[in-house]
Amino acid sequence: MIERIGIIGGGIVGIAIARALSKTGDFEVTVLEKESRLAAHQTGNNSGVVHAGLYYQPGSLKAELCARGRALTRDYCQEHGLPYNEVGKLVVALDHDEIDRLNDIQRRSETNQVPGLRRLSGSEMREIEPHVAGIAAVHSPHTAVVDYSAITECMASEIRAQGGKILLHQNVKAISQLGGVTTVSTDTGSHTFDRLIVCAGLQSDIVARMVGANPSPKILPFRGEYWSLSAASTSLVKGMIYPVPDPRFPFLGVHFTRGVYGDVHVGPNAVPALAREGYSWVKISPRDTLESLKWPGAGALAKKHWRMGVREIGASLIKPLYFKQAQAFIPELRSSDLESKTAAGVRAQAWDQDGSLLDDFAVDQVGTVTLLRNAPSPAATSAMAIADFVLEKYLKIVKAR
Q1: CB 3.0-4.6 Å disulfide test: which of 53, 213, 304, 340 passes with 66?
Q2: Poorest-confidence range of 137-146, 161-170, 348-357?
Q3: CB 369 within 8 A of CB 349
């Protein structure tokens, strides 16, 4: 008897899991996506970077699955004729105060076996990025950019070719488990499965509550806003220019990325979104905001990161403040080179009851339901490796492909 497996979420992780299942030939696979298209949220609104593993704690799931995912993503793009450009990444120390942190990034990168990593002096890094400021850097030449939406659609076509179903406009309203069968009710009807996998991103904690999972971690939405460089100034950036991350803060800070189609964008920043899908300041959900303010960890988080919050919100609302952060890395940059904000993404950041932000990928199991509770960056890079991990560890399917 063929087993029925449902997947909630049509982002790249959900579609990668569906593809891995459909390729075994032993399952009836159905993806339920609430939007009118796939990759509508985090997958389709990020910087398109294929990460090489510079930042992640050695031994963590992020470090392990990012390394595997990078290779799988590269091979997939080559096999299917999708763009995959190794533009390379510089992580730049602007002054001596950042050298110790740069050293830590170098140690992590070497432990994580980031391919081709090199430490560079100021003059050496300007051979790669002639316009960059700073005194030292680490260079990851195999950090790449792709079109994650195109990858998602390509994998979706494979799922359909194998007989799998991808159903759009399926907003999940309720989930019940009875007698080994899971029933998912949506706006348009109900679906029954033998097993269910939830990859709901910004809605993952809501769906988790539907199956009786622990309410923690909760999803705290952070919006990342991008500016694009004008066509006349894109020559200022050859690949990617990143700051040295500050371990006191959960996000990287403003950086430059040359996209897979040749455009250069600046960002993202990180500001609290006032709705789970709050892609601008005018998108406000009083319910979502109140839920975040009432969460037990709200006070501790605010106390720990309020300075960063003020800085990021100020830069979001006042262009000269955003520009100042960007110009620190490229002194030749002019304010007019930053064209109007072209995009924004919302990151689904898992948030514990003590106010801490979860750093690693997190998966739960409730009966026959598998829940991805935290899948921030580098989840897109790692998507195919996450699929193998979920199939092998939680579904006990050893021969994941």
Answers
A1: 53
A2: 348-357
A3: no
